[in-house]
Design a protein that fits this description.
This protein is α/β, with parallel strands linked by helices and 480 residues long. It is 38% helix and 23% strand. The strands form 7 sheets. A 7-stranded mixed beta sheet has the order 16-17-18-13-12-19-20, with helices on both faces. The chain has a 6-stranded mixed beta sheet with strand order 9-8-7-10-11-22, with helices on both faces. The longest helix is centred in the first third of the chain and has 20 residues.
Length: 480
């Protein structure tokens, strides 16, 4: 089917039942590089929510009865439509989110890859028990119904597709709520979906902060998949409890990286610096704390500082060679500025002094590396969600594992060592949903990811993640 080229300057309404539905009230977000206003977008009302949920409920029986092969074919067509629009979507993503254009292109491409991967993943019945030749218990799965996906502002295209794919391939209908800070890309995904899926199967509602509670409390919504902060995740969970709807939460992290004394410093520093400052530090699964063995601490610190100073350039996402774009919004900008002020107030030692770029109109902050602060410093215990990381010394394995596991976060962690057996042994002791040895922030659609402790509830990705969008039944079959 022919897909027209997206016009990224027009947003005629929310996507409800395969139609644009305008709203009396509109709002706009800002370009975080310039603070200039972007385009007007719809502000959904309770009536819009009811209309979208009703359309999704009506579309659910025929969509869930559609064969896996047919659903997979449409999901692949959706992936192809996004792929054909990557230049427009990536430009839009940089305008609204601020990330460098190359990273925006990579995000869109990864979203396409994930949709195609989900199109090949089928949840099949399993035999749970069999005996006497005529008795069998099947484990079967059926779709839940209407799913709401609440998408954050840091990774809006990839995380949107990471919810759309599992919901649709398992036979559910889907309503997406973008972040008010980054509504544009997700509305355009909905516009592409209009030309591919039946009415009511994929819908997008944009609005203000009150839209989330309207959706999470709605009696005819069966599941909420939320990615965002711990604080908001608690509110979502409490809201979903009112109607006992299913919920998956992928929340914030404070990922430690344990650097052993045998590493090749020059070889690992480029990846570690990238995994600390990518997207201006605004990714839940980036390295947030470096624990460096005391015998190599000074050499590692100096190498990390030198590489960052020479290679991590801050600026507008459309400028060549920029790695660190702006912090995405004024609220987060003020939070990161407050953390930098606390670092100064506590007289912590910067190995690399970052700070606000005062000459710029946008929300620009240059990276900071803090030299061996105390374990109870805010820069250690809090997730900065900005371009600042602490370096801390360690000497004993038990000690560093305990420090890495401290706190309520448990999203990701990594261990770096030439001794892979040692690295894996340490990694198995870390309390996190994803743990890497000699890498960090590797994710794949067919591998489950989620958080321990306050970093989440349930998993996304893999067959386990797909089953989170389904009800399980134990089907007992006896012969006569």
């Amino acid at each position: 089917m022919a897909i027209k080229k997206l016009d990224i300057t027009t947003y005629p309404g929310n996507i409800i039942n395969n139609a644009f539905v305008p709203t009396l009230t509109t709002r706009h977000s800002l370009n975080p590089s310039t603070t200039a206003a972007l385009w007007e977008t719809p502000v959904a009302t309770p009536a819009d929510v009811d209309a979208a949920v009703s359309a999704a409920r009506a579309a659910f029986p025929p969509w869930s009865a559609t064969s896996f092969a047919e659903r997979a074919a449409l999901l692949r067509a959706f992936a192809a439509a996004i792929e054909a629009q990557i230049p427009q979507l990536a430009r839009l993503l940089t305008l609204e989110q601020g990330k460098p254009l190359a990273l925006a292109e990579a995000e869109c491409a990864k979203a396409v890859d994930w949709l195609r991967a989900y199109a090949g993943m089928e949840v099949r019945d399993e035999v749970a028990r069999e005996w006497d030749g005529e008795k069998r218990v099947w484990r079967t799965w059926t779709p839940l119904g209407v799913v709401v996906g609440i998408v954050p502002w840091n990774w809006p295209v990839m995380l949107a597709c990471g919810k759309i794919g599992p919901a649709l391939i398992t036979g559910n209908t889907f309503i997406m709520k973008p972040s008010p800070y980054t509504p544009y890309s997700d509305l355009k995904l909905g516009e592409l979906a209009m030309s591919i899926f039946p009415p009511g199967v994929v819908q997008v509602l944009s609005g203000s902060d009150v839209l989330g509670p309207w959706l999470t409390e709605h009696a005819d919504v069966d599941k909420v998949s939320f990615t965002g902060s711990v604080a908001t995740g608690k509110l979502v969970m409490a809201s979903c409890a009112k109607t006992l709807k299913r919920v998956t939460l992928e929340l914030g992290g404070n990922d430690p990286a344990i650097i052993c004394e045998d590493v090749d410093i020059a070889a690992i520093v480029p990846k570690l610096a990238t995994m600390a400052f990518l997207n201006s530090g605004q990714i839940c699964m980036l390295v947030k704390r470096f624990y460096v063995h005391e015998s190599i601490y000074d050499d590692f610190r100096d190498a990390l500082v030198e590489w960052t100073r020479e290679n991590v350039r801050t600026g507008d996402g459309f400028e060549e060679g920029v790695m660190v774009g702006p912090v995405q919004n004024a609220m987060q900008f003020e939070k990161v500025k407050d953390l930098y002020a606390d670092i100064a107030a506590q007289s912590l030692t910067p190995a690399l002094a970052g700070g606000v770029v005062e000459a710029e109109k946008g929300y620009f902050i240059t990276p900071a590396i803090i030299d061996n602060p105390p374990d109870d410093a805010r820069v250690v215990v809090e997730e900065a969600f900005g371009p600042v990381v602490p370096l801390l010394k360690w000497s004993g394995e038990d000690e560093v594992v305990a420090r890495a596991n401290s706190g309520k976060a448990g999203l990701g962690a990594s261990v770096w060592s030439k001794d892979v057996e040692r690295g894996e042994r340490l990694a198995r002791r870390l309390q996190a949903g994803s743990v890497w040895v000699n890498s960090h922030f590797d994710v794949a659609a067919d591998v489950p990811y989620g958080g321990h402790k306050w970093s989440g509830l349930g998993v996304e990705g893999g067959l386990e993640g797909l089953k989170g969008f389904m009800n399980q039944t134990s089907l007992w079959v006896f012969g006569e």
